[in-house]
Structure formats: C-alpha cells, structure tokens
Amino acid sequence: MSTDTEARPADAAPDRPGAINAVPVRHPGRWVAIAVIVVLVAMLVHLLVTNKAFDWNFVFEAMNQQPVINGFLKGTLLVTVLSMVVGVGGGVVLAVMRLSDNPILSGVSWVFTWFFRSIPRYILLFTMGTLGILFPQGIAFGIPFDWKIIDWLGMSGDWRFFTLDANQVFTGLVAGVIGLGLSEAAYMAEIARAGIMSVDPGQAEAAEALGMSRGKVMRRVVLPQAMRVIVPPTGNETIAMLKDTSLLLAVPVIGELFYQLQSIGSTYYKTFPIAVAATLYYLAATSVLMVGQYFLERHFGRGFGNKAPRAARPAGAGGA
C-alpha cells in the first residue's frame, strides 16, 4: 500500500495553510470616549463664543495696553530669565558643594537647600520686600567687623568700600529676582546633583588620570553628559518660574503683568476678563518655552533614544 508521500510528485509544493481571515479587535470604548470629547469640545467652544462674561473686546483691549505689554516684557520675561540665571548658576555651585568631600561645604549646601525649599515663594518674596528694616544704615561692603577692629586700635573712620541703600535693593524687580533666584537655586541644586550622579564616575577618574584638573573634568566631561538628565526638569522649572512671576505682587512689583492687569480690572470693575487676558499671556509664553524645551531635550538626548535601529540592507541589494 503506497503512502501519501509516494503518491505525491517529487516537484509538488508542500501543503500550506489557507489565508487567515483575521478580524480586528473591536474597541467600542474608544468611540464612546471620542464622542464624549467631541461633545465637550463643542460645549466649550459654544461657551467661549456665546457667553458675554468673557467680553472678548475688553480682553484684547486690556492686553494691548502699553503698561501691560511692558509688564509682560520686564516683570514676566526679564525676571524669569534673570531668576533662572541666578538659580541655575547657584544650583550648579550648590550641587558641586553637596558632592564635595569637605563636610563644611556639603553641610552649607544642605542647609541652604533645606531652608529655601521649605519657604513658600510668596512668603519669601513678601519677606524679601521687608528686609530693608534690617539694614537702616545700608548694606556696606568692606572689611568685616571694621568698627570693632578700629575701636580696638583706637582709630576712627571705617574700612568700607561702598554702601548700598537697602530700601532700593530689597524693592521692585531687584528684590523679585533675588528672592525667586535664591528659591530656584535650592531646587536646581537637587536637579544638578542628580544629573552629576547619573554620569559614570569612571569617566571622571579616567579624565583625571589623563592630567585634567577637577574643574576641567566637571566642565568638559561630567556636565555635558549630565545635561541629558538636567535639561528636562530645568525646562519644567523655567515654565514654573514664568508663572511664579505673578507672585511678585508680594514684594510688590508694580511693573509686572498681573499687577497691571489687575489695575485695569479694578478701574473698570471687570475681574473675569482680566483673568482671561492674563491666562492668554501665560499660555502663549509657556507654549514657546515648551517648544524650546523640546529641541533642547532632543539635542542633549542624542544617542540615548528609544528608537529601534534600522534593519540592515541585504548584501547585494540594489539602489544608489
């Protein structure tokens, strides 16, 4: 009796399964969610267009006032940039101090971070605006305790180079930048410390073995690699700083966006349209910052992406 193998011709193709009629998985929940979202968006658009409480003519008129524009440029954007410069620079220094083998430097960094992270920024700015009472004779720069030394030596005069009026230092934009910058430095210290610790210490050891100083190792080897970890939270901190400039009311800072808008709202007894105008300003500014953060993250994250590598082309494949 012959088998199936003997009956089948030698050049016949082996049996293959038929085409699989795959049925896609149904997701009715997705369509329900989309329908709900569409309805909610339509309701929101209807509310924005038809509700007279928004008073869009007044909103755009208030946004185009010159004091408001100046408040946005100086009190919001300028203070954000200066505060972040102080915060990032101070944070990197504090992070290096925290990682130092010297217990005094490490302890000072910890105390600074603990103190300024513990105080709400509104209270910190309010306190900053009242610090002038501590220095009724001004802030002097010179030899420390010069009056005591001069008294012991039986001399007169002082050894001070110059003196600043404390009531001018701790008021206005200067006080706002100092307060926000010191607060931001405490947060940036932890961000920078996490970034530095993410770099393999063996690279720093190898650079030092090549004769590089510790400062150069930090600038040339460690920090460039740590930026991949530092940039994303720093971008978030910058956006948060932009929004926290509205807290400059605590100093107070007259030349600030929200202060100027509130003044207009109080004059015309229109509170809600003023809130809408401020919201539009902050939405526009934070959108630009988010775009910049995206490109910075992509720049410093080169080589660390999650994209799958391209498949190798077979040998002898055509194409230029």
TrEMBL record:
InterPro entries listed in its UniProt record: ArtM/GltK/GlnP/TcyL/YhdX-like, MetI-like, MetI-like_sf
Transmembrane feature ranges = 31-49, 69-96, 122-145, 169-189, 274-296
Gene3D superfamilies from the entry?
MetI-like (1.10.3720.10)
Q: What is its main location?
A: membrane
Q: Where in the cell is it found?
A: Cell membrane; Membrane
For this UniProt record, the keywords arranged alphabetically read as follows: Amino-acid transport, Membrane, Transmembrane, Transmembrane helix, Transport
All copies of the ABC transmembrane type-1 domain together span 73-293
Regarding the membrane, this protein is recorded as: Multi-pass membrane protein
Give the family this protein belongs to, as stated in its UniProt record. Belongs to the binding-protein-dependent transport system permease family.
User: What's the protein here called?
Assistant: Amino acid ABC transporter permease
Q: Which species is this UniProt entry from? A: Kribbella speibonae
